[in-house]
Automatic annotation (TrEMBL):
Sequence ranges assigned to domain Acyl-CoA dehydrogenase/oxidase C-terminal in this UniProt record: 227-376
InterPro entries documented for this protein: Acyl-CoA_dehydrogenase, Acyl-CoA_Oxase/DH_mid-dom, Acyl-CoA_Oxase/DH_mid-dom_sf, AcylCo_DH-like_C, AcylCo_DH/oxidase_C, AcylCoA_DH/ox_N, AcylCoA_DH/ox_N_sf, AcylCoA_DH/oxidase_NM_dom_sf
Lineage: Bacteria, Bacillati, Actinomycetota, Actinomycetes, Mycobacteriales
Domain Acyl-CoA dehydrogenase/oxidase N-terminal: 17-121
Entry similarity comment: Belongs to the acyl-CoA dehydrogenase family.
Keyword vocabulary terms for this entry: FAD, Flavoprotein, Oxidoreductase
Annotated GO MF terms: acyl-CoA dehydrogenase activity; flavin adenine dinucleotide binding
Cofactors (names): FAD
BP terms from Gene Ontology: fatty acid beta-oxidation using acyl-CoA dehydrogenase
Domain Acyl-CoA oxidase/dehydrogenase middle: 127-200
Protein name: Acyl-CoA dehydrogenase family protein
Length: 381
């Protein structure tokens, strides 16, 4: 029986998950800098993540997972720990869930049994194909097509900026089918599918375009009902969006830890930097902002674990708040460290680059705020 004092304390099962994630992050600290500069899956990170068995959290228990269903709070707590140490590790963990969630919710038993245990063990790398060269946030404008013909699904299109692209073992591809949108599982070795890597971002990422030229897969590879794939994508975003906030909180905490360590030991004008000028104010504001972001993130993640779709507004708020705070915290931390925060290859410089994309992927700040404003006005009517 919980008490009032327990109200803002993580239950034990989440504390256990948190401890395991922190252990994994510490275990990967020696390879984090190398992995975070890679545009391909780092084999050592993959091996260590598999050994930790934490990827089981993003798969339902019936198919080799940890919990009965994917738990947003557990995913968020893990990403907070991993995001503090290694963006590559954090992305690998998260994408196993993001790329496969639709299968767990809407896939046939055959698809679930074939792919989800492999996802949990990291025997198969997952990816989700939404974005296109001319389509970003406005997914209903996508041009990829899905046509059913003679017991096959024919997929044509060009997906762009796909995380795990080029290294994934399968892609969950969203395309137009009739008047709706269908989600289709396409194994990476399917004839007609090829990957290209025309882009890389400021914080190197496993990223590629995925071109589908008359790709044929069995009709059973459709995930869910024909034309109903958009609902599966929304369910995926509702479940995992808040976990981006967790990773952002972890990144911000890591940046502040670096700044505090520097400020405690660096001296100038007869005092430590921690007591000089505006530095104490910078540090205090960072601490305060992180705690606010963490509180909102945990609340939103717990609500998402209960009902992801009904609480998407909270997940969206947490995602915006935490990623914007991470950007300001890491910026202040670099300012505290001065030239040492700018050194290429240093942790603060790496965190600075990694923080920037968080405000764009899985819903940019502006798009989310527009959606939240519409909901606020609609609900007030």
């Amino acid at each position: 029986m919980s008490t009032e004092q327990d109200l803002f304390t993580l239950p034990q099962r989440y504390l256990d998950v948190q401890a395991a994630a922190r252990d994994l992050a510490a275990d990967c600290s020696d390879i984090a800098a190398r992995a975070d500069e890679s545009d391909s899956i780092d084999p050592d990170v993959r091996k260590r993540l598999a050994a930790s068995r934490l990827a089981e959290i993003v798969v339902p228990a019936a198919y080799g997972g940890r919990f009965d269903r994917v738990d947003s709070l557990a995913v968020t707590v893990v990403r907070e720990a991993l995001g503090a140490e290694c963006a590559h590790l954090d992305s690998m963990f998260a994408m196993q869930g993001i790329g496969s969630y639709g299968i767990g919710v809407g896939g046939s038993e055959k698809l679930k049994e074939e792919w989800l245990p492999k996802v949990a063990r990291l025997d198969a790398i997952a990816a989700l194909g939404l974005t296109e060269p001319g389509v970003g946030s406005d997914l209903k404008a996508l041009t990829t097509t899905v046509v059913e013909r003679d017991g096959k699904l024919i997929v044509n299109g060009h997906k762009s900026f796909i995380t795990n692209g080029g290294d994934a073992d399968f892609y969950s591809i969203l395309g137009r089918e009739g008047d709706g949108y269908s989600l289709v599982l396409v194994p990476a070795d399917t004839p007609g599918l090829r990957t290209e890597r025309p882009h890389q971002i400021i914080a190197p990422h496993v990223l590629s375009d995925v071109v589908l030229d008359n790709v044929e897969v069995p009709v059973d590879n459709r995930i869910g009902e024909p034309g109903k794939g958009f609902a599966l994508v929304l369910a995926t975003l509702a479940t995992f969006r808040v976990s981006v906030a967790g990773a952002a909180v972890g990144l911000a905490q890591a940046a502040l830890d670096e700044a505090v360590a520097h400020a405690r030991t660096r001296e100038g004008f007869g005092v430590t930097l921690a007591r000089l000028g505006s530095v104490p104010e910078h540090l205090a504001k960072c601490w305060m902002d992180i705690e606010m972001a963490r509180s909102l993130t945990y609340r939103a993640a717990a609500a998402s674990a209960r009902d992801a779709r009904a609480n998407l507004h909270l997940s969206s708020m947490a995602k915006v708040a935490a990623t914007e705070i991470a950007a300001s915290v890491v910026d202040r931390s670099v300012q505290v460290a001065g030239r040492f925060g700018l050194v290429r290859g240093g942790k603060l410089e790496r965190l600075y680059r990694e923080a920037r994309p968080m405000r764009i992927y899985e819903g940019s700040t502006e798009v989310i705020l527009d959606s939240l404003a519409k909901q606020l006005v609609r609900d007030a009517g």
